[in-house]
Amino acid sequence: MSVLLLGGSPSVSSSSARLLQHVGDKLALHGHRCNTLQVRDLPAQALLHANFDDPAIVRATALLLDADAIVVATPVYKAAYTGILKAFLDLLPQDGLDGKLVLPLATGGSQSHMLVLDYALRPVLASLAARFILPGIYATSDQLRWNAATGLTLDAPIAARVARGVEQFSTELFALPQQRLQAQHTLHSLAV
Ligand SMILES: Cc1cc2nc3c(=O)[nH]c(=O)nc-3n(C[C@H](O)[C@H](O)[C@H](O)COP(=O)(O)O)c2cc1C
């Protein structure tokens, strides 16, 4: 199944992007095809001016619409998700996540804002008609250690949460075609 890894950090050297890639690597081991979209790579002017027709925005939107599932990662900025992530989500069709599974990830400077996932990001994902939003995974920057030679090391509780989240996401993802068929069948039965 196809998964879009959507990164919402403006930083080049980003802990949330590393966590996102880590989750993507694990999903690839389960046999899923992952594409990555970092919102920071989209043209800033198009994002700020809500230019729906910009070719890079059109391509990014198509990438998202084509995916069966999304893993979205954001750092906490001022007790919420980032502005650039919102700028991109604002450019999606109203039902842009229709039928998709979503796994939200966030990193923050402290545990104080871990509810950002539930109180800020989840309502936006739900308003875009996501089919099933899995419990989010939150890590503080010091629970993620980066070394250019050895890569990303997660504290044990985060590693366990990531393992559980990936397992559940992958299971739900493989069940998606069957659920879609059942939904179509139900709609068809209601129509006749
Ligand atoms: C502008 C800005 C605002 C931030 N606001 C918060 C905040 O409100 N709460 C928090 O826990 N961390 C906050 N942080 C810390 C980041 O969330 C944290 O360092 C995160 O891991 C950075 O992720 P990134 O490397 O992917 O950008 C803020 C950082 C920046 C640069």
Compose a concise summary of this entry.
By secondary structure, this protein is of the alpha/beta class.
Would you mind describing this structure in some detail?
With 192 residues, this protein is α/β, with parallel strands linked by helices. It has a single domain, classed as 3-Layer(aba) Sandwich (Rossmann fold), CATH 3.40.50. 45% of the residues lie in helices and 21% in strands. The model has no long low-confidence stretch (mean pLDDT 95). It binds flavin mononucleotide. Flavin mononucleotide (FMN) binds next to helix 1 and strand 4.
Map the helices and strands:
Elements (H helix, E strand, L loop, with lengths): L1 E6 L7 H15 L3 E6 L5 H5 L6 H12 L2 E7 L7 H7 L11 E8 L7 H12 L4 E2 L3 E4 L3 E4 L3 E4 L1 H36 L1
Specify the CATH class. Alpha Beta
Domains, number:
1
Major β-sheet, in short?
6 strands, parallel
Q: Low-confidence parts, pLDDT < 50 over ≥5 residues?
A: none
Amount of beta strand: 15-25%
SSE succession: EHEHHEHEHEEEEH
The rough form would be described as globular
| Rg calc | 17 Å
How widely separated are the two ends? 31 Å
Identify the CATH architecture: 3-Layer(aba) Sandwich
Query: By helix and strand content, what is the structural category?
Result: alpha/beta
Please estimate the helix content: 40-55%
Ligands, deduplicated: flavin mononucleotide
Number of strands: 8
Q: How would you state the average pLDDT, rounded?
A: 95
As for the CATH topology, it is: Rossmann fold
